[in-house]
Design goal:
alpha+beta, 5-stranded antiparallel beta sheet
Length: 377
């Protein structure tokens, strides 16, 4: 009976102690969050409860394993597995704490900074630092756990260290692409060439930078598709960044109209139209004839917008309103396509083939003139 009760008591006490400590820590963090609503740190740290309990339950069970009376042929394997879970839980806890601190720093910086470009740059740099730190913590913890828990690996480590030169060359060649993307990601993050939240045009697609990782960058296209590209692309090929240097943009609308278009009236209507729209930031506007062909003229309307969202709505709205105004007020100004058949050689033009009659005298009555040119009585 004792061989059965002792393990149950040890395991039950370990789980109860873990749950009690986790509950007490959560209550303390909740109270601190209510006392300090100006910072989200304490509320974010409450998300560390589960990894903390994992570390506690595995650590306490390792310490009390000898008292539990559990006698198996695989005690060493069980203890090593518990140690590995403890190390993994510690890494998980450290990553959660680092994420809470990073999110708090970003919130405070955004609250004290009005420039959205600086906020996006800080967010990008903080994200890259967080990812690099997580990668290093995981690698170091895994290496230490393997060398500490598996002594047989030390001999292998010594032999690998002796041939470090050859392995370094092979690893460098094999991981050339990965290392290139890693350093490119750091260069992008701290070089401020592109940041999370920037509006870019890449490979003919217009979208917003949604995520920057150690190897890839994700652009959310306007139709909610995701374009994933290696980070090194942004250091080796040209692309458009509409958010760099400011959010203001100038949108253009091109219209192809007839030569008889009243350009001055169209320009005046554009001014009245822009005055009535909220998406025009009232910086600049213009309407000029930029080109002409034998059948049409090209009119360009340019107006400024405060950001990319207003840029799109202003451009589409102005194009629609201008076309509607031309169709309603001056339909003859719309471009026309000749549908009459072409004349062959030796055929006279219609205006030349029609008989030319003199204009009847004022006050004359009757129909068209007769053959000798005198009007009918």
């Amino acid at each position: 009976m004792e061989a059965l009760l002792r393990p149950l008591i040890v395991i039950g006490c370990t789980v109860a102690l873990t749950l009690l400590v986790g509950w007490v820590v959560d209550r303390l963090l909740h109270a601190a969050d209510r006392r300090h609503p100006e910072t989200p740190l304490w509320g974010l740290l409450r998300g560390c409860r589960i990894p903390l309990q994992v570390v506690l339950v595995t650590g306490v069970f390792q310490a009390t394993y000898g008292w539990s009376g559990i006698d198996t042929d695989h005690d060493r394997v069980v203890l090593k597995c518990l140690a590995l879970v403890t190390v993994a839980g510690t890494v998980w806890l450290a990553v959660r704490i680092a994420s809470a601190i990073a999110e708090t720093s970003l919130t405070r910086f955004a609250a004290n900074t009005r420039d959205p470009r600086r906020i996006r740059r800080f967010r990008t740099q903080l994200t890259m630092i967080q990812r690099v730190a997580t990668f290093l913590i995981a690698v170091v913890a895994g290496s230490v756990a393997i060398l500490a828990l598996f002594p047989g690996m030390r001999t292998l480590g010594a032999s690998l260290l002796a041939s470090a030169g050859v392995i370094g060359i092979v690893a460098g060649v094999a991981a050339q692409s990965m290392l290139g993307n890693l350093f490119a990601g750091l260069q992008v993050a701290f070089g401020s060439s592109v940041k999370i939240g920037d509006t870019v045009v890449v490979e003919g697609e217009w979208g917003v930078v949604e995520e920057i990782s150690l190897a890839f960058l994700t652009v959310r296209i306007w139709d909610d598709r995701r374009l994933t590209m290696p980070v090194s692309y942004f250091n080796s090929k040209p692309y458009e960044n509409w958010s760099r240097g400011g959010t203001e943009l100038t949108c253009t609308v091109y219209l192809h109209l007839d030569h008889a278009t009243p350009v001055k009236a169209l320009r005046e209507y554009l001014r009245e139209l822009l005055e009535s729209r909220d998406d025009w930031d009232r910086r600049t506007w213009s309407l000029v004839v930029t080109d002409s062909t034998p059948t049409t003229i090209q009119v360009r309307a340019a107006m400024s917008a405060r950001d990319t969202d207003d840029w799109w709505t202003l451009q589409c709205g102005v194009r629609e309103e201008l076309l509607e105004w031309v169709r309603r007020e001056h339909p003859y100004a719309l471009p026309r396509i000749a549908t009459a058949p072409a004349l062959g050689a030796g055929h006279a033009r219609p205006d030349e083939a029609a008989p030319r009659h003199p204009v009847p005298a004022q006050g004359a009555r009757g129909g068209p003139p007769d053959g000798d040119g005198s009007p009918e009585a």
